[in-house]
Amino acid sequence: MSGVHPDSTPVPANKSTAEHPAPPHKDSTASHPPPQKPDPTLTSNDHASQRGQPAARSSAAAELSGLTLRLKQSLRQFPDFPSPGILFEDIMPLFADPELHEDLIRALVLHVSQNYEKPDVVVGLDARGFLFGPSLALRLGAGFAPIRKKGKLPGPCETAAYEKEYGSDFFQMQADAVKPGQKVLVVDDIIATGGSAAAAGSLVKKLGGTLLGYVFILELDFLKGRDKLDAPVYTLLHGQE
Questions:
Q1: In DSSP terms, which residues pair with 173 in a beta bridge?
Q2: Among 7, 4, 171, 25, residue whose Cα is nearest residue 79
Q3: What is the pLDDT along the chain (241 residues), one digit of tens a residue?
Q4: Do the beta carbons of residue 132 and residue 123 sit within 8 Å?
Q5: Would the CA dihedral through 49, 55, 59, 60 be positive or negative?
Q6: Are 133 and 108 in contact (CB under 8 A)?
Q7: What are the Cα distances from residue 2, in Å, to 89, 94, 159, 190?
Q8: Are the beta carbons of 71 and 88 closer than 8 angstroms?
Q9: Could you give the CA distance from residue 61 to residue 119 in angstroms, rounded to a whole number?
Q10: 176: buried, middle or exposed (CB in 10 Å: 19+, 13-18, 0-12)?
Q11: Which terminal Cβ of the chain has fewer Cβ within 10 Å, N or C?
Q12: What are φ and ψ of residue 200, in 5° steps?
């Protein structure tokens, strides 16, 4: 379920609210590389490689644009849920359809691969960050670590508080979930006011991790939650603008 996030505030319903080398070619020599291989002595090869990079980026950008359009069209909104005045953003259709689920992970992999260093750990927030965080981590060749509500994780834990609409709540991570110096990406379904994501970032840094950035499926832009975050923020979709 999505929409009312732990750090979100009520939203009026009428608000516009990703080794074995081949045998050498029979005609190849040290001074004449095989025809399918570029000659390392020619600087023109560097220029050819550079010409290919913008084309690859353009292709990835076009693919990402198509994916986000399909994903955006699949979201649902429910006015006055779970209480009057709140417009609930439902992301569950993205997981009900295997093709949409694949589109979601592919879109996130595309963005992360093009814009961040390879993470060592993907950290997912309780609870909807668990829906796609492990799949994203697997595709990126990274580990996955959960951030949970206080009292849900065994063993030594680090704790961080964050503000909710009424009072405070607490997140925890196991003390060995992130090793000092590891590169970490924090993921969640929605960024609203940004309090819970900021707490997650602080936990990563307490454990000695290097925070690469935050990735969300959906952003409620009018709440300006990204202003609370101290690392690059990427949201795949935007809602209630």
A1: 158
A2: 4
A3: 444 444 444 444 444 333 444 444 433 333 344 444 444 434 444 444 455 567 778 899 999 999 999 999 999 999 999 999 989 999 999 999 999 999 999 999 999 999 999 999 999 999 999 999 999 999 999 999 999 999 999 999 999 999 876 679 999 999 999 999 999 999 999 999 999 999 999 999 999 999 999 999 999 999 999 999 999 999 999 977 5
A4: no
A5: positive
A6: no
A7: 6, 11, 24, 7
A8: no
A9: 21
A10: exposed
A11: C
A12: -60, -45
Q: Residue 110: which residues within 8 A CB-CB, separation 6 or more?
A: 18, 60, 63, 64, 67
What is the identity of the amino acid at 223? Answer: L
Paired tokens of 138: 């697997």
Q: Which helix (H) or strand (E) holds 48?
A: helix 44-74
Query: Among candidates 174, 167, 234, 236, which has minimal Cα distance to 206?
Result: 174
The CA R_g of the chain, rounded to the nearest whole Å, is 22
Spatial neighbors of 128 by CB under 8 A, at least 6 apart, are 1, 2, 91, 188, 189, 190
Please name every residue paired with 218 in a beta bridge, in sequence order, or none if there are none: 190, 237
Torsion sign, CA atoms 111, 131, 225, 16: positive
| Amino acid identity at 102 | E
Beta bridge partners of 190: 218
> If we measure between CA atoms, which residue out of 161, 222, 148, 234 comes closest to residue 192?
222
- β-pairing verdict for 168-174 and 183-191: unpaired
